[in-house]
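From: lab user (bench 3)
To: helpdesk
Subject: output format question, protein + adenosine-5'-triphosphate

Hello, I'm new to running complex predictions and I'm not sure whether the block I got back is the full result or only part of it. Here's what I submitted:
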Amino acid sequence: MEITLALLKPHVLRNSYALQQIKTLIGNNFTILESKEVCITKELSERFYAEHKGKFFYHRLSTFMRSGPCYAFILESESCIAKWRHLMGPTKVFKAVYSEPNCIRALYGLSDTRNACHGSDSESSALREIAILFPEFKIR
Ligand code: ATP
Ligand code: MG
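Helpdesk reply: Thanks, we reran it on our side. This is the complete output you should expect:
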């Protein structure tokens, strides 16, 4: 079994229909080990997005992630990381709409920054990101 960190971005929490749809999709595909609403502070966002520091979208991304509460999950399933990334779809919403119109980002993404959700990209990223957002979580 594999685990991953999934995060729903602030504009999704402001859309109760989108939030409910995505929670149902998650519940149907994964075991939810932990879930909580989380306010991303400047300090958390700097740690979480350290790999993107210096990129042209970094400031915009960090500001957006602090614009309201997010919803974080620790998910478990076989091939959890790839499975959640597949359900999210391509990073860029215009590509998502074009190539995978039923993925989360195509349905609920608004722009490249406000692309609805995040998912860890590897086992090591998942452990790093879980430690940042769920510091009390004990990895089995
Ligand atoms: P995530 O890490 O959020 O699961 P990802 O792995 O598909 O997405 P990354 O390259 O890690 O994409 O980018 C992290 C986040 O930075 C993206 O989800 C998006 O919100 C933002 N981002 C990435 N590329 C761009 C871009 N070209 N313009 C604006 N925002 C971007
Ligand atoms: Mg990424």
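A quick orientation on your result: Strands lie at 2-8, 31-38, 70-77, 117-119. Let us know if anything else is unclear.
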